[in-house]
Specification:
The protein is α+β, with helices and mostly antiparallel strands. It has a single domain, classed as Glutaredoxin. The chain is built from six helices and nine strands; from the N terminus they run H-E-E-H-E-H-E-H-E-H-E-E-E-E-H. The strands form two sheets. A seven-stranded mixed sheet has the order 2-1-5-4-3-8-9. The chain has a two-stranded antiparallel sheet with strand order 6-7. Strand 4, helix 4 and strand 5 form a beta-alpha-beta unit. The longest helix is centred in the middle third of the chain and has 19 residues.
Length: 180
């Protein structure tokens, strides 16, 4: 069943990757969501995370599918670099918190939180819903400046470059905004 889901999501993502996503310069919709880090639930509040530095917000279709697992591993591996740049990383999917608790520990390696958007409200606000499969988020990554403005958007169903590209955007922002 998971394999069939993956095939359907991949086909839908390829068909919709050119659809609208929030563009750089747009205000990032603020949200609070139930998140889990290392299997421990807590309320993730975007406004609070932005007070600490830029936020990498990435949407993914479903926990434990091949592409989403690769992407989670890649973000987990890169967390020391993101942390050094005072960046917060959070993944968001339409999965329930129970499955995300397991995903947070095993695939995210307890390095960064993932948030549940079961209602799809956050996914919709960020134009990250797959139009042909609205119960799932598209694979889209955003970098949000501490001002609340989106500074980078990357929309690609292939997980391979999401970490590399968001890291480059965070580094560029950091160079332009040196700490006092």
């Amino acid at each position: 069943m998971r394999r069939l889901l993956f095939v359907l999501l991949a086909a839908s993502s390829f068909a919709t990757s050119a659809f609208a996503a929030l563009q750089p310069g747009a205000p990032a919709p603020l949200f609070t969501a139930t998140a889990t880090l290392g299997g421990n639930d807590y309320p993730f509040i975007l406004a609070d995370a932005l007070k600490r530095g830029p936020v990498v917000l990435y949407f993914y279709p479903a926990a434990f599918t091949p592409g989403c697992t690769i992407e989670a591993h890649d973000f987990a591996t890169a967390m020391p670099q993101f942390t050094a740049l005072h960046a917060t990383v959070i993944g968001v999917s339409r999965d329930g918190i129970a499955i995300l608790k397991k995903f947070s520990v095993s695939e995210c390696r307890s390095k960064f939180p993932v948030a549940a958007d079961e209602s799809g409200i956050i996914t919709k606000e960020y134009d990250a819903t797959i139009p042909t499969a609205p119960a799932y988020a598209n694979r889209i990554s955003y970098v949000i400046a501490p001002t609340g403005q989106i500074i980078y958007t990357y929309d690609d169903p292939d997980p391979a470059d999401h970490v590399k590209n968001t890291m480059a955007a965070v580094k560029a922002w950091d160079l332009a905004h040196p700490a006092p």
